[in-house]
Write a structure and sequence with these properties.
single chain, mainly alpha, 5 helices
């Protein structure tokens, strides 16, 4: 029974701190409800957005950091080799990516077309 009363007292103290910190003690119950609902919606959207988009963002940041560390050709060869090994084509399956890209870029005046971008994204 002692633990329950301590828990109740602690929760009441935290509620009091919350109301004093955000000046909710001077609001009417309806205004408190509106404020608390907006705060709950805001924080739930932040948590939802973080759980949906943060892992992809972190993956993208590590991908870019790896690009700065290892360079483009290393990433292309490693990803192509892994993809080729998974398809049963051997370790050198992605080795021709750089040559294919250079050949395509040479024909289009150094510009990259849509397929070049898709090929690069596919290697990441």
């Amino acid at each position: 029974m002692l633990y329950i009363s301590n828990l109740i007292r602690w929760l009441q103290r935290k509620r009091y701190q919350y109301e004093v910190t955000f000046s909710l003690y001077m609001l009417t119950p309806t205004e408190k409800f509106i404020f608390n609902t907006c705060a709950l919606l805001f924080f739930s959207m932040v948590i939802l957005a973080a759980s949906l988009y943060l892992p992809g963002h972190i993956k993208e940041m590590f991908s870019r950091a790896w690009f700065y560390y290892a360079g483009d050709e290393t990433v292309a060869a490693t990803a192509g080799a892994a993809r080729g090994a998974a398809a049963g084509q051997g370790a050198g399956a992605g080795a021709g990516f750089a040559e294919t890209r250079q050949r395509k870029a040479g024909g289009s005046g150094g510009r990259m077309d849509k397929q070049d971008v898709l090929d690069m994204l596919g290697t990441l």
